[in-house]
Design a protein that fits this description.
Length: about 325
């Protein structure tokens, strides 16, 4: 909204599943095929824990959170990724994710002011890729080409993704993600089901269930290392520490897990607008946690962010509508 008029409108689909695969809530087509992109990094990190690699190299909660992260290239993220590589006897040249300027504005300015250039460590996926490399080193695999479809690293990731989501992951439904690893188009409901299983361990082998619990626990304990300053993932998880896991993906994707309710969530904004996806996921989480009025109220506020002018004056608001608006209507236009 700008003033009292609609300036832009967005739509999408969401699914909420329990660990048995039953749909608890939905909006739009639950069988819509989507590329989850970075929203599934916690599942992709399962081999890092299951193989014993994380323990062998002394990775704690911060390192595990960064292995599941889309970080913003802030100094803490860069230094931790560098440390993860140093522990396994590698450096940033081993990363095959490519480089880009930090997504965090202040980090970009600081890097430019000191005459620096972005490196692979600044890539928002450098933590995930450091985790892949750690697994390769622990299993004594040749790490070169670890991003390729046929590399054993990606075979392990693919097996974990397919097992957890119960959706086929094959060359036929694959494409290449921004960080060069394969990404797979699967039904939205499969992602929600997968994160319900990650949250509960139901239907997973004991070792996998333990690894899933450890990764989600690390992400909820260290949300800054999953995302960064002023990022929705961080804001949403801080509303109810240890109770909400949220991970965004490119093009308006979000996946979430609510361990206390045994639920998994998957959401896609059709036009890929991140700001719309952020409002959608906040509104949906507010409704799912409506019995906790304090938490639901804070999530509802995040679902209705104010639009400001360059002078900081409120000039409008982003708001959920339709089914997602229930319980978070709030004041204002």
């Amino acid at each position: 909204m700008r003033g009292d008029r609609v300036e832009s409108a967005h739509r999408g689909a969401f699914v909420v599943c329990d660990a048995h695969g039953a749909i608890v809530e939905q909006g739009g087509d639950p069988d819509q095929l989507v590329f989850p992109r970075s929203a599934v990094k916690a599942i992709q990190a399962l081999p890092l824990v299951e193989t014993g690699a994380a323990e062998a190299f002394g990775y704690g909660e911060k390192e595990l959170a960064l292995a599941c992260a889309s970080h913003r290239g802030e100094e803490e993220h860069v230094q931790l990724a560098s440390s993860m590589l140093k522990r396994i006897g590698l450096d940033e040249t081993a990363l095959e994710c490519g480089s880009h300027w930090p997504f965090n504005h202040d980090a970009t300015i600081a890097l430019a002011q000191r005459g620096g250039e972005p490196s692979n460590l600044h890539n928002n996926c450098s933590g995930k890729h450091s985790g892949f490399l750690c697994t390769c080193r622990h299993l004594k695999l040749n790490h070169r080409g670890y991003v390729d479809f046929d590399h054993q690293s990606q075979e392990m990731v693919r097996e974990a993704m397919q097992n957890v989501t119960a959706a086929i992951h094959s060359r036929e439904n694959s494409a290449i993600d921004g960080c060069s690893i394969p990404t797979y188009a699967i039904p939205l409901r499969s992602l929600a089901f997968g994160f319900a299983r990650m949250a509960t361990g139901q239907g997973l082998a004991p070792q996998r269930a333990s690894a899933a619990a450890r990764l989600l626990r690390a992400c909820m304990a260290e949300p800054f290392f999953v995302s960064g300053s002023d990022v929705p993932d961080l804001s949403l998880m801080r509303v109810a520490p240890g109770r909400i896991f949220v991970k965004s993906g490119a093009e308006g994707m979000f996946c979430a897990a609510l361990p206390e309710l045994g639920l998994g969530v998957a959401l896609k904004c059709d036009d890929g607008a991140g700001r719309a996806g952020e409002t959608m996921i906040a509104a949906l989480l507010a409704r799912l946690l409506e019995k906790d009025e304090d938490v639901s109220g804070k999530l509802g506020e995040l679902a209705r962010p104010v639009v400001t002018s360059r002078r900081g004056v409120a000039v409008g608001r982003i708001r959920p509508v339709g089914a997602l608006a229930l319980g978070v209507e709030g004041p204002g236009p």
